[in-house]
Amino acid sequence: MRILIAEDDATLADGLTRSLRQAGYAVDQASDGATADAALSAQTAQTYDLLILDVGLPRMSGLEVLKRLRSRGSMLPVLILTARDGWSDKVAGFKAGADDYLTKPFHLKEFLLRVASLLRRGHWPPAQKKLPTYQFGNNLIDLESRQATTAQGTIQLTELELKMLLLFINNEGKVLTRGELLKQVWGVSPATETRTLDNFVVRLRKYFEDDPARPRYFKTVRGRGYRFIKNPR
């Protein structure tokens, strides 16, 4: 699999490149946003399988690169690397279409784990087999195009967002533990310590809940996990 690293810190980019190549991946580098955007827009046959993207790039910000990528309809998995650890920065990254977010400094093992997780793509049915739509409340999700019509407008779901949503839908009313979600959505050990799962639940609530602070559909079951309720009372 081929990975593009868009990072202007040459020392960090070279270190990550060495580690990824040792893990068996092919890696290209871009030291600024404009170069990364050109490499991504020139793709013809899904040249890359993952984009590792720094937010603070010269010539074009990482968020702008990401927005342009998504505007072209690309569902390429994107892992953001940034020194910005504020919640508003994370929200901006996820809103632009990021799949995961890692704050510098980080442990190499966690970085490689997240890379492997994002590359472990789900296998979806062929496009010619029309997938159904699913509705709950005022939300309508087209499972083929991954577009959701909500009170927030039209939202383009990432593959991992849809994978997690389908897991909730297929287990409506049941409690899904953190371990089950980590294993089935990301393919990692149930014992993995990560906030990625919680961030994804927050994103689903922002998309589909009328009041994300008081969720009705995606409920937290304290000490156990989460439950999806299609028709809350």
Q: Which key terms come to mind for this protein?
A:
233 residues; alpha/beta; five-stranded parallel β-sheet; 12 strands; globular
SSE blueprint:
Elements (H helix, E strand, L loop, with lengths): L1 E5 L3 H13 L3 E5 L2 H9 L8 E5 L7 H10 L6 E5 L4 H10 L3 E4 L4 H12 L13 E4 L2 E4 L4 E4 L2 E4 L2 H12 L4 E3 H9 L9 H13 L9 E4 L3 E4 L5
Parallel strand pairs: 1-2, 1-3, 3-4, 4-5
Antiparallel strand pairs: 6-7, 7-8, 8-9, 10-12, 11-12
Helix pairs in contact: 2-3, 6-7
CA radius of gyration:
18 Å
Biggest sheet layout: 5 strands, parallel
H/I helix tally: 8
Distance between the termini: 47 Å
Topology order in helix (H) and strand (E) letters: EHEHEHEHEHEEEEHEHHEE
Mean pLDDT across the residues is 85
Spatial order of the strands forming the largest sheet: 2-1-3-4-5
Strand content: 15-25%
The stretches of 5 or more residues where confidence is low (pLDDT under 50) are: 122-130
By secondary-structure content and strand pairing, the structural class works out as alpha/beta
| Multimeric status of the protein | single chain
Overall strand count: 12
